[in-house]
Amino acid sequence: MHPQDAGLTLVEILFALLILGILTAVLSTVFVSSLQSNAAADQRTRASQLMTAVSQQVAQNTIVVAPDQTRYLAYTPQSNTAFLADSNTITSCDTYLSVADNQGNFCVKVSNTETFNPNTSSGPLLSTAARLYTIQVNWSERGVTRNLATKTLK
């Protein structure tokens, strides 16, 4: 029996380590990509939940926006019912989300700038036109501002 027959050669060991290293690199890339994708999906889900909550608050007069006005509200990722106290100082969601401390938060733009009163053959359908609110939820995702919007009548 020769000494070479008893085990693996150095070349075989190095080749096995190379294959193991490549597999580890591929799997870690897939893992990181999966985490980023899950985080983005979580933010979109939270934005959708927040948009629904704000729509309900507008319908219930919890959030009031004067006609032909726009209001900006900031929410933490943990809350969709109580906006932050500093919301009155926000003049733009893009500006608010560009500040590093605010990038984990959501900025909601609520506009009361339109009316809704469909015409019929005998004139307007409603005696008083309904107000059409536009609700836009904005958030920062990997340095890019994303948004989700809806309209609601009141």
Give a description of the structure:
The protein has 154 residues and is an alpha+beta fold. The protein is built from two helices and six strands, in the order αβαβββββ. The chain has helices at residues 10-59, 93-98; strands spanning 69-75, 106-116, 119-120, 123-124, 130-141, 144-153. A four-stranded antiparallel β-sheet has the order 1-2-5-6. A hairpin with a 2-residue loop joins strand 3 (119-120) and strand 4. The longest helix has 50 residues, at 10-59. It holds the Pfam family N_methyl.
Secondary-structure topology with pairs:
Layout: H1 10-59, E1 69-75, H2 93-98, E2 106-116, E3 119-120, E4 123-124, E5 130-141, E6 144-153
Antiparallel strand pairs: 1-2, 2-5, 3-4, 5-6
How would you write the strand order of the largest sheet?
1-2-5-6
| Class by SSE composition | alpha+beta
The low-confidence runs, each spanning 5 or more residues with pLDDT under 50, are none
The amount of beta strand, in percent, is 25-35%
Helix fraction?
A: 25-40%
Count of alpha and pi helical runs:
2
Q: How many β-strands, per DSSP?
A: 6
Query: Oligomeric form of this entry?
Result: single chain
Order of helices and strands: HEHEEEEE
